[in-house]
Design brief:
This protein has about 180 residues and is an alpha+beta fold. It has one domain: Peptide Deformylase (Alpha-Beta Complex). The protein is about 25% helix and about 30% strand. The protein contains 3 helices and 7 strands. Strands 1-2-3-6-7 form a 5-stranded antiparallel β-sheet. Strands 4-5 form a two-stranded antiparallel ribbon. A hairpin with a 2-residue loop joins strand 2 (about 60-65) and strand 3 (about 70-85).
């Protein structure tokens, strides 16, 4: 298991639609383990495979749902449906460091996927978990949370986004690999 570099805004892989997973094999299990290590090293709550440069429909999440309780999921080929309710919450993204904005998302969403062993999952995600799952599935479709902001907000963020696209990370930002983290 190892920590992989997270791709940053401007990297073309973040705008590509990930492909369905056909084989649930050892290579996939290694990817899932690496993604989980990467998500934790970067202190995230979710990660999509294209964020580490792999165009497969794979998501890992580890979301706090109560004091000292988290939900950890691996979602292979996730599909979302039956989105209900609406709420606004602040979102950030490991691929867009330093930018946090309010995003409107469904408060309840039905999730169908496979886990890393090929077992079918079918559940309703609510609240924060629903937001995280929607954020990560957006990644698999080449959509970033800033795409869900108003035109005015995106215009306000244009300088910061352009700087990220040029490889200029926010002052004080140090990814785990630069801090000596990793395998």
């Amino acid at each position: 298991m190892s920590v992989r570099p997270v791709r940053v805004y401007g990297d073309p892989v973040l705008r590509q639609r990930a492909l369905s997973v056909e084989d649930l094999d050892d290579t996939l299990r290694q990817l899932v383990a690496d993604m989980r290590d990467t998500m934790r090293a970067y202190r995230g709550v979710g990660l999509a495979a294209n964020q580490v440069g792999v165009l497969q429909r794979v998501v890992v999440v580890e979301v706090p749902v109560a004091e000292e309780q988290t939900v950890a999921l691996t979602l292979i080929n996730p599909e979302l449906s039956e989105a209900t309710g609406s709420g606004i919450s602040e979102e950030g993204c490991l691929s867009i460091p330093g930018i946090y904005e309010d995003v409107r998302r469904a408060q309840h969403v039905r999730v169908r996927a496979l886990d890393a062993e090929g077992k079918a999952l079918d559940f309703t995600a609510e609240g924060y978990l629903a937001c995280v799952v929607q954020h990560e599935v957006d990644h698999l479709n080449g959509v970033l949370f800033v795409d869900r902001l108003s035109m005015l907000k995106r215009q306000f963020l244009r300088r910061a986004l352009d700087a990220l696209a040029r490889g200029e990370l926010p002052e004080g930002y140090s990814p785990p690999l630069a801090r000596g983290g990793g395998a």
